[in-house]
Write a structure and sequence with these properties.
This protein has helices at 11-19, 43-47, 60-66, 75-92, 113-131, 143-155, 168-177, 188-196, 202-206, 210-228, 259-279, 318-332, 367-383; strands at 3-8, 28-31, 38-41, 69-72, 96-100, 103-107, 135-140, 162-164, 246-256, 282-293, 304-315, 339-351. By secondary structure, the protein is of the alpha+beta class. The protein folds into three domains: 3-7 and 78-228, Reverse transcriptase/Diguanylate cyclase domain (Alpha-Beta Plaits, 2-Layer Sandwich), CATH 3.30.70; 9-73, MutS, DNA mismatch repair protein, domain I (3-Layer(aba) Sandwich), CATH 3.40.1170.60; 246-393, Dna Ligase, domain 1. The strands form three sheets. The protein has a five-stranded mixed beta sheet. Strands 9-12-10-11 form a four-stranded antiparallel beta sheet, with helices on one face. A hairpin with a 2-residue loop joins strand 5 and strand 6. Helix 4 packs antiparallel against helix 5 and helix 11 (259-279) packs antiparallel against helix 12. The protein is globular and about 65 Å long. The protein binds a DNA duplex through helix 8, helix 10, strand 9 and strand 12.
DNA sequence: TCTGGGGTCCTAGGACCC
DNA sequence: TCTGGGGTCCTAGGACCC
């Protein structure tokens, strides 16, 4: 049973274009939160030589010269468009794993090669017709090969967006053209290591002996190699919406030096993390708070300062999480340091239904507290984020991020619908 | 001046227990 | 001077993904 990887082409840029036709056929980049660096590019922006992940200030001349449009990332819009794409895909191929905001793996059924390719084409046409988003479909016997097929489908325009890799000769030919760093599961560090041993392409990696791979790249690396050889090690995973860790974090809009602002930001992140925790009906016992200074200013020096605290009882109570986290922030804070960013991570997550009973009833995350929290979440869902909030999370939030080039929430906010002029 | 925000899995090593 | 060994759990850190 082959796997398909369905990947939206230049997803964020494509979403922006669906609602702003002026952007069609023009170079466009999407900036990270805080407008710090480039996280997505249209095909034209790639051609203009804008690298992925580059800080915005470094490419200002290029932007100007090529008349490149910029947008701040608009996750409300991308998230909603993603749901539409995934819905259509799931209708076509029921056994589907949503892997990220713009990618999904599906099991493809078909009695022969032509049939399988036709299924790929149908998926592509339906998604394009119903959402305006173009996708590429890579099909192969393992997920890792499907990833490579997908890249190849994108690169070769004559394929019409769909490639099924099934013939051994054809697979090796593609693997020989794939740099080892482009293999799913091989990151920067492993790629550098492999290059040192003259392993340049995906094909070279495929031919390495198991023992060597196991020693150098652990079991995960070995799985990758087996998958390259066509032996499936990774299956479609039923998407679970219960996370094992919940993280809330932002870079500050400007450097923060005072303890009050830090505590306010950490309180805000705690409140958001607690909200995510409740939305998956879980409670957590561990809170990690980390304060981050400018790592580029003093390379080699420590720039992350974190601590983890274990609560006596698992909770999803914003108040309790905020109180603990801001105490930790106060403890970590050093006068004279300039902070750029902070994060709050909740771990030790268990379903709310499995909550440990405690001798001292009053301390527990009780039903009463839970109802209070539920009401708070409902109010915020109904009347907008931060309608009801803990005062410690701040009113003005001077550390809030920059979003200078934000497009509208065309699909999720009544106040920001598209206007059509006749 | 200006460098994202989420996640996952694996391993080594320490604490602790019997 | 001598000072077990094995199992389990937890955490920090490193690798990876988009």
């Amino acid at each position: 049973m082959p796997f398909a990887l369905v990947d939206c082409n230049n997803f964020y840029a494509s979403c922006e274009r669906v609602f702003d036709p002026d952007l069609k056929n023009k170079p466009l980049v999407i900036l990270s939160n805080n407008d710090g660096c480039v996280i997505a590019r249209s095909a034209e922006a790639k051609e203009a030589g804008i690298p992925m992940g580059v800080p915005e200030f470094k490419i200002r001349p290029l932007i100007k010269k090529n008349h490149i449009a910029m947008r701040s990332s608009n996750y409300a819009l991308y998230g909603d468009m993603s749901m539409r794409v995934m819905d259509i895909l799931t209708q076509c191929t029921p056994n589907t794993e949503v892997y990220s905001i713009d990618e999904a793996f599906s099991e493809i059924h078909g009695h022969d090669t032509a049939d399988i390719i036709q299924t790929g084409k149908t998926i592509r046409e339906r998604i394009l017709r119903d959402t305006g988003i173009a996708v590429s479909v890579g099909i192969a016997s393992t997920k890792t090969l499907a990833k490579i097929a997908n890249e190849a489908a994108k690169a070769d325009k004559s394929l019409g967006g769909v490639l099924y890799l099934y013939d051994d000769g054809q697979i090796d030919k593609v693997l020989k053209q794939t740099p080892v760093s482009d293999v799913w599961g091989v990151g920067k560090n492993y790629a550098t290591m492999l290059n040192r041993y003259a392993v340049q392409t995906a094909f070279d990696l495929k031919m390495l002996p198991d023992t060597w791979v196991r020693a150098k790249m652990k079991v995960t690396g070995l799985r990758t190699v087996w998958e390259l050889r066509g032996r499936p090690c990774l299956d479609i995973e039923e998407c679970s919406d219960t996370r094992k860790g919940i993280l809330s974090s932002r870079s500050f809009g400007r450097p923060v030096e005072n303890c009050e602002d830090i505590c306010e930001a950490v309180s805000h992140f705690s409140a958001r993390a607690a909200e995510k925790l409740r939305s998956q009906k879980s409670v957590a016992t561990n809170i990690t708070v980390t304060l981050v200074t400018d790592k580029y200013k003093a390379p080699g020096q420590p720039y992350k300062f974190g601590a983890t605290c274990t609560l006596p009882n698992a909770t999803a109570d914003s108040g309790e999480i905020i109180a603990t986290a801001s105490k930790m922030a106060r403890y970590l804070f050093r006068q004279g340091k300039i902070y750029k960013k902070a994060w709050v991570i909740l771990t030790g997550i268990v379903p709310q239904s499995e909550i440990q009973q405690d001798l001292f009833d009053g301390e527990r995350y009780s039903e009463k507290k839970h109802y209070l929290m539920e009401t708070l979440d409902e109010l915020n869902a109904k009347y907008g984020k931060r309608t009801v909030l803990q005062a410690s999370t701040g009113i003005d939030q001077p550390w809030q991020m920059k979003q200078q080039y934000l497009s509208k929430k065309y699909t999720t906010s009544w106040n920001e619908l598209m206007t059509v002029r006749a």
